[in-house]
Amino acid sequence: MTPDSGPPGPSSAPSAHCATVPPTKEPDPTERNVSSSNLKAGEDDRGHRAHRPWSARRIPAAMVASVVLVAAGAALIDVVAVRAGRPAAAWRRHLADELATRPVDDIWMLTGAAVAAAVGIWLLVLALTPGLRHWLPLCSPAPGLRACLDRDGAADLLRDAAMRVPGVSKARIRVRRHRVKARADVRFRDPHQVKDDLTAALGHERDQLALASPPRIVVRVRRRTH
Amino acid sequence: MTPRPVLNRSLLALAGLVLLGGGLLILFAGLDIYRRHDLVPPTGWPLTTPDDVLLGSADRARWSSQGWLWWPAVIAALALVALLALWWLLAQLRRRHPGALPVGGTPPQEGVELRDSALSDAIATEAGALPAVEHAAVRITGRPAHPRTRVALTLTPQASPGTVLDVLCEGPLQTARRSTGTPGMPTEVRLQVAGHKPHRAE
């Protein structure tokens, strides 16, 4: 019933696993040199420390580009039409009138300004954060190789490991970036013993995942008799 | 990192700063924050009191009375912005493929080239035949001089990702490296696990 602060024994094992991988590549200096000359500096050290991949931010970029394109295109067409002697479009006259008559403490101006500021903050967050929170970086076996594992996939593998523990009838796993929460129903055996076994099994399976920053494991067990 | 993410993120940050700055400018004036907190905006500050409007009559008169050079300049600026936005949008929709990869080093005059689709098919076939791999999809992106490999693997529920990664590195990727002669092709591997129901594995 009480949250456990990680498995007792193998908690130091995953980092040791990560640390042992790069030295296996070190004794071959020619390959290192060739590869590092072809790689950018930032990519070479990913063989040692795996970072989360950075999203290309395609969709927000495409949306902002579309908005700018539509706005600039519409303004361009209307300006050219006015220069050619035609009257300005209704939307432009309407917009100019509204902007010229509404003071800035008008509720619509304030709402629009607040929305614009919020969207601006959101775009800044998108620009400055890595994104791809759904992908957990893995220890890379070679320089130039980056790997990551889907969070749901990690949860499925951990759930299978939990289900293999005798006494567990049902297991729900939530994988977050720094913590794995496991909740299990115990049908038989002593719950404390099942919990110890479960913690050990999940710790072992977590090491099998080869995550670059192994999450803490929190196990909760509940007795379910029927 | 390829230049495109950097470009995307810089432009997104620029758009965010413009929106945030404009919004805050209106909010500060509209909520009368300058007067309430005894702040003195610098001279020439566009909006200072709640009675200000965004498009004052003085502004409109000034714009209308500009010389003949003003409107062509506006048209040129708008056209430039629209073209840049169109190019930025198309850059998101297009995925860059190297087409043909030079085999055995850089000099292309040797004439030995490998289609990127052939290479990705070969890697995908070999990776898909690995134990514990259910499905493999490979894409080669980037320019011919700097190709990049993206491998998406779907693992079976019995797989161990660390082992699969090692085997993938020793097997298909090693073969690809050897056959193209480019030793350090940057590779990104994404692992997923085939969805399945929980069951008691005995």
From TrEMBL, chain B:
Source species taxonomy: Bacteria, Bacillati, Actinomycetota, Actinomycetes, Kitasatosporales
Record protein name field: Alkaline shock response membrane anchor protein AmaP
Keyword Membrane (UniProt): yes
Keyword terms, alphabetized: Membrane, Transmembrane, Transmembrane helix
Residues spanning the membrane: 12-31, 69-90
